[in-house]
Amino acid sequence: MSDTTAGLLSQIAGTGRDEVRGGFSRPVFSAAERELLEWAREQCTRRGLDAEVDGNGVLWAWWNPAGHSLVDAVVTGSHLDSVPGGGAFDGPLGVASALRAVDLLRERDVVPARPLAVAVFPEEEGSRFGIACLGSRLLTGALPAERALALRDPDGTTFADAARRAGLSPDRIGRDDAALARIGAFVELHVEQGRGLIDLGAPVAVASSMIGHGRWRITVRGQGNHAGTTLLADRRDPVVAAAQVVLVVRAVAAEHPDTRATVGRFQPVPGGTNVIASRVDLWLDVRHPVDAVTAQVVEEIARRAADAVAGEGCTVELHEESSSPTVAFDAALRDRVSGALPGAPLLATGAGHDAGILAERVPSAMLFVRNPTGISHSPEEHVEDDDAERGSVALADVLQSLVG
Ligand code: GLV
Ligand code: MN
Ligand code: MN
Predict the structure, then answer these.
(1) Residue 93 confidence (pLDDT) above 90
(2) pLDDT of 47 above 80
(3) pLDDT at 1 over 80
(4) Which of 28, 78, 81, 83 has most ligand 1 atoms within 8 Å of its beta carbon, as the pocket-test mutant?
(5) What range defines the domain where residue 203 resides?
(6) Based on the domain organization, do 392 and 282 belong to the same domain?
(7) Which are the contacts of 76, defined by CB distance < 8 A and separation ≥ 6?
(8) Is residue 286 within 6 Å of ligand 1 at its C-beta?
(9) 38 and 167, same domain (yes or no)
(10) 313 and 348 share one domain
């Protein structure tokens, strides 16, 4: 009897726990994330899959009993890195379900007539190097290798150095058409990150679309100075100005229905209790189903932020770090997935996923599993054991219909 999906997840429940923030912090190339990748590789090997980590740090584990050449494969998987203080399911549920689905197919005596692979993508969250879905963007060429290699984490370590320390070779990082050419279909199972399935009263949904999203770094500059000797009238305090920028973000978003705009990181520099900061770095995340609206929202934020900070004698700059358009998942694959899951609703997602990046190059699909709290990117993210198992059975049904 193989492990259930919840049983597999319980094996990694102690890895990367964050005692300060709560939940899990598993940034790419950290000890915790490497331990998880080793766990995934070991689980694949134990199942007789042929596991390799490619030049971009993507784990591929092949089940190819008929010895077909590696083309037109069905690939399933997700990621193991997390946001800071994230939940237990965002990413790992898709990996554990992929492993469980392989077990279920074996129990059903399915012998794949197409190669099937489990895949794990690095830095999906962009928590360490700032760009979400970094591994899949590198693979597809959506992000040039030179740009990725020069990215720095908050400690100043470059992606090139961190990758090297993780055993990757920087000159092998980048677009990999040969790896992509092996994929006939990619199916990612993911915890639902909103309330869609609660409201629908269903455990599993098929993705219809993924809304476009982008990230911008905002720099507000003022004058660093002494907290005790500088009178209020003499200050150019970028923290006060940056607070106004956050309010501008909320106000502009509220004027454009269906916009989601977030400042989730706000860093005064140098950051001392008795120091008026010289600069504040803020990171802005904007999402809207219509890409032109996202662009318009960001343009308005930039314009109104400049006015808002001027009163404090500060300046503001916006710099785009990444953007991804709204994706409608491949209709033919989506219909096949839905055909294998009678009654499963279609659901759009406001979250970003590697499947959305891969969708630009290969037919991709997603399954979502109910999250009874409706909360994600937080320790309160949850999936009931029964639903996790229903998700794996659904994934096995989908894979069976694709490889049979
Ligand atoms: C990842 O979950 C994202 O949507 O940013
Ligand atoms: Mn996430
Ligand atoms: Mn995710």
Answers:
(1) yes
(2) yes
(3) no
(4) 83
(5) 5-211+326-403
(6) no
(7) 94, 98, 101, 116, 117, 118, 119, 186, 187, 188, 189, 395, 399
(8) no
(9) yes
(10) no
The number of domains in the chain is: 2
Residue 404's pLDDT is what?
84
The per-residue pLDDT for range 145-174, each reduced to its tens digit, is 999 999 999 999 999 999 999 999 999 999
Tell me if 131 sits within 8 A of 321, measured CB to CB.
yes
**For range 19-32, the mean pLDDT:** 98
Predicted confidence (pLDDT) at residue 110 exceeds the cutoff of 80: yes
Same domain, 154 and 9: yes
Distance 125 CA to ligand 3 centre (A): 7
Q: Are residues 9 and 145 in the same domain?
A: yes
**Do 196 and 274 fall into the same domain?**
no
Convert the pLDDT of each residue in 373-398 to its tens digit: 999 999 999 999 999 999 999 999 99
pLDDT in tens, 332-358: 999 999 999 999 999 999 999 999 999
Q: Are residues 27 and 56 in the same domain?
A: yes
Q: How far is the CA of 125 from the centre of ligand 1 (A)?
A: 6
- Which pTM value belongs to this model? 0.97
Query: Which has the closest alpha carbon to 134: 124, 144, 145?
Result: 124
- Cα of 110 vs centre of ligand 1, distance in Å, is 34
pLDDT digit string (tens) for 194-247? Answer: 999 999 999 999 999 999 999 999 999 999 999 999 999 999 999 999 999 999
Q: What is the CATH number of the domain that holds 60?
A: 3.40.630.10
Burial class (CB in 10 A: 0-12, 13-18, 19+), 318: middle
Which ligand 1 atom is the nearest neighbour of the CA of 376? 2
